[in-house]
Amino acid sequence: MWTAVLICLCHCLLLVTSQDAPEFLEEQQQVVAVKGTQTIIPCRIKNLGSHRVLWSFEKILLTFDDRRITDDMRISLERPYKTEWNLHIGDVRPTDAGMYSCQINTNPMTSQIIKLVVLDEQPSPVVPDEVAAMAGTKAEIMCKLPDTNDIGTWSYKADEKSEGRTIIENDKYDLLAGEGQDSHVHTLVINDVRAGDEGFYFCRARSGAQSGTSLKVVVPPPPPSLEAKAESPNKLTMRWKRPVLGQADVTGYTLYINNIETGKEHIFEVDSNEDPTGLESFSMGDLTTNTTYMVQLATKLQMGDEVVTGKKSPEVNITTPYFMPDAPGWVKVKRQSDDAAEVTWRPPDAKTSGIIRGYRVTYYPLAGNRKPILAKQKTVEVEGQEGNRWEARLTGLRPKTRYQVQVAGYTRKGVGRSSKPVGYLHKTLPPELSLNGRVLSKNSVLLTVTSLGNGKMGNIKMFYTEASQPSWKRLDFSSEWKFTVVGGLDPRTSYFFKVKGKIGGKMKHSVTHITTPPHDLLVPQAVSVSATASTSIEVLWDYVIANGSSSLPLGYIVHLEETSEKDEDERRHRQSVVFNRTSVEVKDLTPDVKYTIQVVAFNGFGEGPRTDGLLFHIAESGVKQDAVNEPYPPRFTHVLPEELSIQSGETVKITCEADGYPVPEVRWFDNGEPIGEPAQGSNQLFMANVRQSTVLTCRATSQWGDIETSTKVLMVKDEEEDTGQEDNLAIGVITTNIMSTTLTVAWEIIAGDPESIDHFEIDITDDTDRILLTRTLPGQTNSFNLRSLQPGAEYRAKLRAYGASPTGKQDELLLEATASAVTLSSDDEERTTTTRAPIVTPPPQQNKYRAWLPLSIVDVTPNSALLSWDFTGLDPRYVHLFELKVKSRSNFTLLTETLKPNLKVMDLTLQPGQFYFVQVRAFDRSGRVLALNTTQVATPSKEMQEETVETTDEEEAPVLKRASLTLTPHAVTGEAARLDWSLAGAQQEDIDQFVLKVKDEQDRTLLRQDMRRESRSLTLSNLSPRTKYFAELLAVDDKGATVAMTTMSFTTTSLTTDETDDDSTNLRVFTEELDSNLVKVAWYVPPKILPDLSGVTVQLTDIANVALLTQQMSALTRSLTVRNLQPGERYKAHVELKGQRGEVVRSGFLEFDTEPTPGMPGRPDIRDVEVANNSAVRVEWRNTPSPSPAAGSNEITGYVINFALVDNSNQPTSGTYQLPIFGSAQYVVIPNLRAGQRYMFQVAARNQYSFGPMSAPVFASLPRN
């Protein structure tokens, strides 16, 4: 009957389904019980949901859910917690032994099998046979009880005849119980062991079974008698006699050697030598001469399973002998270059065995009377060399100067005797020409011209001829060039090249010989890697000859290099050379270490191009290779201009870049003829002295196809010179910052060409026209500070500008201007400023801080837009050029055009139905941004234009929806400003965030700030007074597209009295250069605090605030370039200015994102981290748009989860673990974490292009229980 019931229940239970799959929390394979006792068989389940639980024994149903099914009254179900379904058996019988199954009605059935073992009697506890302890220490006796739930008690007998007593916990005894898996282990700790503690100790289980062990107490031996002797100035030898013990064995010694002078202690573990005589010894070298050391010794004894160290011996003081090196010998000096020489010498013959740490080489020039000029003495220290010949390099030598050189060895205590002075005359080599050549291809060579010695090269001419038919032909070469490429040569031909010209006033010449190869070497194809064993691989490749254009190489070189975070010098790099075959086996590799393989062909002329690097590693679990690179056809990463207009004789410099896998070969063609050499991935073409129009074509070729793009080079005639009236030069001079003893004279070029001024002369006179000061200043100067003046006195400044006149005359007085001021009687008096009029008074609108660039749209069609702009607020002669940029809504730059200052109209070719942002900037000759403006262009679709044409008077034509931003500065002071903005034409829900960029006049990005869509204001601080800034604001939607954009400029004011105290010492941090893997961090240090600085410390951290780089630099350093960064990642640069005592004087930081690569996925946003239990965490995130969208860039194919242990300050304390996820799931449960620990979690997305940047870190702490 019960069998039928069981079948029916199982059939019904299998019909139940659940969303979350249940699982067992832990597995226990066996339970031991004693006959007649009670026992519990555990079963813990999580995520049970609507599923049911049943227990069975040998296919007999016992319980269903929490109800008993069997008639056996001894069986019951216990549930102390929600997840526990424990089976309880009372009065255990031998027939109860067997397999018990805890089952869940999933489909298929899930079960956990536990074996019950029934014993006839309770087993006894397990204790060691004997325990030994040293008197005065602790003794520990460990007892393993039969059952995890058992309770143990302890008792003691002095001997077998005495009565036992129960041990309770007090100052003498500690009773310790184990935890977790060791809960059945109980430990008795006996403190301060004495001889009276010897005897028998018993551990008793709850069943009454007990086991005993004996304790023996060992009296510690007396410290050994130690003797120390100085064998040499740098070596000590210690001797002692091994103690004899009957109760314990001597396993070794601990030796303590302490330097009395420095307090540094050395500890050595010394093994016993088991000498029959019992004598022990130990020697230590590399000590300091003439130094006192304190030596002590302690004996190590074997006490059971432990090693115990005894007491230290009495202190022994020993002093090493005094030693100073003798003078080195055989000192010789040899010239190396125009400003350097090499010094060699032999170490001295040491009379005593002392250690020389290094040598100090001193050299100084000699005067005409052969006396040394000690004020110009220099010293070079050399360490780390070995052998009988040492050498050093002397630098900073002057030609035709005699020097005196001496060498002396030194130890830790000081410098020894110097060698005899050696005289050396630093001569200069006669000037010579040197011509070097290198084969580039079968029909081109590279020639390099260099000069040896001192002398200026001039009138350089170059010739060449075939060796078989001598007939010198002249090459086009200029004295200003250092190298040239000669093309059009014949393969397999011998050539002579000759250069001649004047150097140092004398005619010199040089000849070199080059033989061109018969054919060009090609790139090996189809490189593959297969593992042959756990530590070896086989590399295979093909070498394809196309149409006889190349010949087989002599052999191949296989380059293998580790790819890890180690320094380049520490990475393993191996080369394998093979002949007459296209395969090689590489052995002795390390599993789970990534390597890069490259193959290159070679012949008698050199190596060919290398293959693209193939990345692989060998997994420990199997002999398999990771597939890293997937092939795809070539494509251009930058669009070449359709036309390039130049003047005759100018230089063309243009770069063509393409990517693909394998990396394509990029080559240039001039009117269909190949020019230059092919290159992998990127090829820069440099053509000098272009005289005619041509068509340049760039072709990218790989095994998956070839593509090409062209640009036209057009010659334009020189513009006619302006014959109108020449511009007059005008300057304005003022006096400002007037105090009682100081004032500043400032000036500004307000008309004419500033570059025509070579230098200024300024005269300072008093009210009687007596000249107090005259100074000559560079032409770029715009102010001069006066100090130590008399309070309440009148001073006059006369400024004169000198330079080239319009007629070409040099150093001519161009103009002069004056200004005067009266210093304050005290610094509390109200400031005044007196200004004398300049020669030409500037018009009111000529203010570089008020320049404005109105930009308007004249006409828009589906395929074009006509733009017009003007320049107001400043004399147009200050404008050197305009720059026009067109960007898409994805913030991609579609067009960058440099325009002449007289061009103010531009017709753009656009796509129908698209949205564009157009920005125009005006630059002066020094590269500063004078003004900028941005507008939005929405081209109508062709359908919309047709509808507009057909619209009647009663109908309105459809209009493209446009959003606009208005950005306005407020509360602008000398060091801060508040920027407010408003959004029109779009709802707040259409915007995901705002992005604000602030730049200076040099177009350097000072700030990039991402803000919430509710934001409408931002306050900028740490600005510089009287400085012009440019702000660019973008409204971005949730797909990363730009909804609206605007730009504006503002100028900070002069500092007030209160601001001057602090703002003159502000530290500003900004980026001068930012790329996908590079950043140049720069900072501005005000001159006022520069004398108080001793250095600068720069630290670069990642988004998880983990320090990647810490660099200490001179106080004069103003920038740091960091390379090998990750594209699209977020970093933070911290800059600290250190004072003379090492304190932090000023600090600042800058957060920035490196440029993303095309198609890179966006940075995920972790929404929640939920602690599931004490060993698991659930992480949930959402995707963000790609920062550089491309086709399919938002289609995520997987993720990687990074997590690591961190401390309370959120700094990682372990390595980073990675968990890959395939598919589009946006949450994961991470199991097997450590209870009671704190973790950091980050997420990165992956698409068909690459991995994206890591998310901001999120932290979670797991409970202990």
UniProtKB/TrEMBL annotation:
Any one GO molecular function term: protein tyrosine phosphatase activity
SMART domains: FN3 (SM00060), IG (SM00409), IGc2 (SM00408)
Cellular component terms (Gene Ontology): membrane
Region (Disordered): 824-843
A Pfam cross-reference name: Ig_3
Leading EC class: hydrolase
InterPro entries assigned to the protein according to its UniProt record, in alphabetical order: ECM_Regulatory_Proteins, FN3_dom, FN3_sf, Ig-like_dom, Ig-like_dom_sf, Ig-like_fold, Ig_sub, Ig_sub2
Residue ranges of every copy of the Ig-like domain listed in the record: 22-115, 123-220, 634-714
Domain Fibronectin type-III: 222-323, 327-431, 523-621, 725-821, 851-942, 963-1055, 1063-1157, 1160-1265
Family: Belongs to the protein-tyrosine phosphatase family. Receptor class 2A subfamily.
Name of the protein this chain belongs to: protein-tyrosine-phosphatase
Organism field: Littorina saxatilis
